[in-house]
Design goal:
mainly alpha; globular
Length: 607
Amino acid sequence: MAAVVYEEAQAADRQTVHRALASVLTGENADELRPWHLASAVEAAGGPDEEVARLLEESAHRSWARGGSATAARALGRAAKLSPSTNGAARRLAHGARAAWEAGHVDVALGMLERAEGFSSPSTVADLSEGLRGLIEFAHGDVETACRQLTRDMERVTDAGQAFRLGSMALRAAWAANHGELQRETLQRLERRLPQGNFPNADLLPLLREWWTEEGGGGADDRDQIVAPGADILTELSGSSWLLMPPSPMAVAWGIDSALQEALRRETDTLRHTDQMTALTQALAQTVALDIAQGSWTSATANALKGFQVAEGIGDDHLAEQCRAGLGWLAAVRGDEQTVADFAARSNEVWVPRGVRVFSACAEWNLGMSALFAGRAEEALDRLVRLTEQGHEAAHPTVAVLAAPDTAEAAVQAGQRARAEEQARRLRRWAERTGAAWAISATHLVHALLASGADAEKQFRLALDVPGARSRPFNYARTRLLYGEWLRRARRRTDARIQLAEAAETFRRLDATPLLDRTRAEQELTRQHLRRDSAPARDTGAVLTPQELRVARLAGQGLTNREIGAQLLISPRTVGHHLANVFPKLGIVSRADLARIDFGDGLHLIG
């Protein structure tokens, strides 16, 4: 009724009421509500008003500072309509576009950008919006195009700190495409744009230069000039804009995952209380790979699922795929080959045409790991060598170095020693370049796989004794498993039992089923008493894979295949495939029987 009365009122009456309300408002929200009433009064009068536009703009920036990006975007859009000058309208629209993008409203942001460019030049709008068009292209379009747009805007913006952030994102786009020439060109243009170090975070520039310089791209004396990320630098990086942070695979490769993990957790906790959905999704997506590396797999799964849901909601394909890649990795180490295959097929379908090789590489790595852990070493090697194959759509140097231990193990099992030696050299170069504990440990591990006798044991021990190696629990447990296998073959059963028991405990905690089964098989060969789960014993044929168990639980709750697929990010067809495996394992014949399964006590029928 109130809306009808308002619509039927004369413009002059509306104007009078809004001005009256604006004049009598009191309380803590008065300064935020008053500009809106004044704006309504001006709109009722049918004319622009710079003073009211200014009040709206100020209110918008206060909301923005509190995390209310969507409110800020609406206020700035309204202020632009009331602006008597084209410069004022362009500024407010450009700022509003930025706020809308931060709130996850990409279509609104693009519309405001286009309107701003109707009032001013693309160069001015790029400066005012802080290079927004390139950032949107990176998330929703072509990464090479995004790199070139971001680089142009880096050279257009007046603020050196903003230029630094845009240059960092341009480099990330070139890295994602594995376009070495474009990456080198972008880095050179960034260094020309920022010859002086008098801007925020300027002391991070040498570190970023080292990150974004390709392996072997420097001169002969460059090794002595490598910038190691010390604690003070990492602290500053963790408090800076996410636009300056390295992509998570690079952070993991450089061994700085722990510092960034803690920083992103703090940022995520803060962002959850705002409507800054783009930054929240970025933080969640970045955290996934870091949590995986640190052995926080439950957290990684939760963040990946939440990040994927939010990214899908705001249409950010890039961040959604980061989350999917993490879930695919977890599926591989947990023995869920069907999910790995589904995710990889989806990734290749979407990202190969768009040239985002880092995602194609992650998909290939996940497929390779899945095959390796299933005992198919030759198939695994065939996939993993593609990560270093010049010109291949899955070739990517960062993913290749992270996957090098898997590639080496597959090569040794497949009897291709030269391939394993190649991976040992790759890891050694990376360890020398970065000093990352995981890379040093992995280098020793691969040398152990290639050695024999006392030298092999020496390398295993060195791998386990690297300071910081324990911070990667899964990698450390794999080293223990491989060492335990070697000890068992050397007929040192007592020593083997110690290593295998520790490995089994970690794999059990992480739910890394294929490697836990492999470890237990080795333990049986050493005649070691095995630790079993506390649940009642069950027939081996009835044990479900982790994904089968998740599907069965949801089906037992009455969800349809489509609803289960939406929750687990798999297709309805894959859900049906899992259920077809579940029924005979549990000795049931219908979904109705699933509702009678006690999933917490040995998978027994109840009632």
